[in-house]
Specification:
alpha/beta, Urease, subunit C, domain 1, 2 domains, 37% helix, disordered N terminus
Length: 441
C-alpha cells in the first residue's frame, strides 16, 4: 500500500508532466494567403498550417483551427520553407577592404582571400571571442530568414560545435547549424603568407594539417569526436594538393560515421579530383571546365558556387573595376555552363567581411543577384536555397519542405518569390522549429 506522502508526491509529479505536455502541445495556426512549394514550383492560396511544438502538424485549405490555438494571420503574404545557406563563415569577421591585394588578383584569387589579414585575425582573436561573433552573425542570419546553415570552417578550436549546441539547447537564437569543425588540409592550409619554419604551428588550430593516410584518418576522427556534422577539406591552394585517391579516402572514412565531405576548390585540377572522388560538394569551383562539370553531374556532386557579385567584390574587397569585371565574367559564365549541364547546385554565400550598415543575412542574400544576372529561373534559385540545399546537407527528411511532420521552419515574404525572387530580401516573418523570431505584421 502506497503511503499518503508518497501518493501526494506521485500525484504532483504526474500533474507537472500533464501540464508540461499540455503546454508543449499548444497549437499555432498560420493563415497563409499564398503557400509556395519550391520542389514542385507551385503556389496554393488560402492555406492553413497547424504547428504543434517544433513540427508541422497539418497543412490544408479546409483545416479547422482548434479552439485555444494561437492564430498568426499572414493572409497578405507568401509562405515558404526557411532558407538555407550552405557556405557560411559565422566565425570569420574581417573588416571590408582590410585584405592584402598587392599581388596578381587575376590569376591567384586564393592568395588575397587568405592572406596576412586572415592569419592575423586568427592569431589575435580567441575561440571564445569568435564564438560570440558567431552568436551575432547567427542571429542576423536567422532574422533574415535563413533557418539552416552549413558552416564551412574557420572556427578556431571548435567554436562552431559550441554555438551549435547553444542554439540546440535554446541558450541563444540562431539557425540550425551543420558544422564542419577544423578544416582538413595539406600542411599550410590556405595561409600562403606569414608562415615560416620557425613557427610551423601558426596555421593551427584553424587548419588540421593532414598529409599521410594516418594523419588524414586522425583528422577525420578527431573532428567527428569534437562535434563536426560535416567535413571540410582544402582540395587545392598549394603547389601540392590532395589527389582524387586522397579525397576518396577522406570521403570513405567520413562515411563510416555518416558524414559528408565538402571541398574548397578554386582550380580546375582540384575540382576535377573532387568530382572524380564523388564527394558531396565542391565549394567555389570558379574555374571548372565543362569536362569537370559533366563529371560532377554524373557523380551527383553538388556545386556550391559562392558566386560573389561585382558590388560585393568592389565594396568588400576593394577590387578595381577591371578586376571586378574579370571575376564577374568568370563567375557568370560558370553559372550558365553548370546550369545548362545539369550540375545540382545549392546556395552558399561565403561572406567573411563586415560591411558597415549591412547585416550578415543581408550580405548573404546579395549572392542571389549573380544567379539573376546569369538568367537562372526564379524557381531554380528558390530550389537552390531550399530543397536542393536540404538534400545536399542530408536533412531532407527533417526540414526544407512544408509538409506534415517536418520541422516548422517557416518564413513569409510580401510577394511570391516564384514571380519576384528579390522578395526574399524582404522577409517579414520567421519561425524556426515552432518559435517566432520575426513578425512584422
Amino acid at each position: 500500500m502506497i503511503k499518503t506522502k508518497s501518493l501526494k508526491c506521485l500525484t504532483g509529479f504526474l500533474l507537472v508532466v500533464f501540464l508540461s505536455h499540455a503546454l508543449s502541445a499548444k497549437i499555432t495556426a498560420i493563415k497563409a494567403g499564398k503557400l509556395v512549394d519550391p520542389e514542385k514550383g507551385i503556389t496554393q492560396v488560402n492555406q492553413i498550417i497547424l504547428v504543434e511544438g517544433k513540427k508541422i502538424k497539418a497543412i490544408g485549405g479546409d483545416l479547422e483551427i482548434p479552439g485555444g490555438a494561437t492564430v498568426i494571420d499572414l493572409s497578405d503574404s507568401t509562405i515558404l520553407p526557411g532558407l538555407f545557406d550552405c557556405h557560411v563563415h559565422l566565425f570569420i569577421c574581417l573588416l571590408a577592404k582590410d585584405w592584402v591585394r598587392s599581388i596578381d588578383e587575376k590569376y591567384r584569387f586564393q592568395l588575397w582571400r587568405y592572406g596576412n589579414d586572415f592569419l592575423n585575425y586568427t592569431l589575435n582573436n580567441t575561440t571564445t571571442y569568435r564564438a560570440l561573433q558567431g552568436v551575432k552573425n547567427g542571429r542576423e542570419m536567422l532574422e533574415a530568414g535563413f533557418t539552416t546553415v552549413r558552416d564551412a570552417g574557420g572556427v578556431g578550436n571548435y567554436a562552431d560545435t559550441d554555438l551549435r549546441r547553444a542554439i540546440e539547447n535554446g541558450l541563444v537564437p540562431g539557425p540550425t547549424i551543420i558544422n564542419s569543425g577544423r578544416i582538413i588540409s595539406p600542411i599550410g592550409g590556405q595561409f600562403t603568407w606569414g608562415l615560416h619554419a620557425e613557427r610551423p604551428g601558426q596555421g593551427e588550430p584553424e587548419y588540421f594539417y593532414a598529409d599521410t593516410k594516418d594523419e588524414i584518418k586522425k583528422a577525420v576522427r578527431e573532428n567527428i569526436l569534437y562535434g563536426a556534422k560535416v567535413l571540410k577539406i582544402i582540395a587545392d591552394d598549394q603547389p601540392y594538393i590532395y589527389s582524387a585517391e586522397d579525397i576518396k579516402f577522406i570521403k570513405d572514412e567520413a562515411a563510416r560515421a555518416g558524414l559528408k565531405v565538402a571541398a574548397h576548390s578554386e582550380t580546375e585540377e582540384g575540382a576535377y579530383n573532387c568530382a572524380k572522388a564523388g564527394i558531396a560538394s565542391i565549394e567555389h569551383g570558379f574555374k571548372m571546365s565543362d569536362q569537370t562539370l559533366k563529371l560532377a553531374e554524373k557523380n551527383n556532386v553538388y556545386l556550391v558556387g559562392t558566386d560573389f557579385t561585382g558590388e560585393y567584390l568592389k565594396e568588400g574587397y576593394g577590387f578595381s573595376d577591371e578586376m571586378v569585371q574579370y571575376w564577374v565574367d568568370l563567375i557568370i559564365d560558370r553559372i550558365k555552363r553548370a546550369y545548362k549541364i545539369g550540375v545540382p547546385m545549392a546556395y552558399g554565400s561565403d561572406i567573411v567581411l563586415e560591411i558597415p550598415g549591412k547585416t550578415w543575412g543581408e550580405m548573404s542574400k546579395s549572392t542571389m543577384d549573380s544567379y539573376v544576372r546569369a538568367g537562372l529561373p526564379a524557381e531554380y534559385i528558390l530550389k537552390m536555397m531550399t530543397v536542393n540545399a536540404a538534400r545536399l546537407l542530408g536533412v531532407e527528411n527533417e526540414r526544407g519542405f512544408l509538409k506534415e511532420g517536418m520541422a516548422a521552419d517557416i518564413i513569409a515574404t510580401p510577394e511570391n518569390p516564384l514571380e519576384k525572387i528579390q522578395t526574399l530580401k524582404k522577409v517579414k516573418f520567421v519561425m524556426k522549429e515552432g518559435i517566432v523570431y520575426v513578425n512584422q505584421n
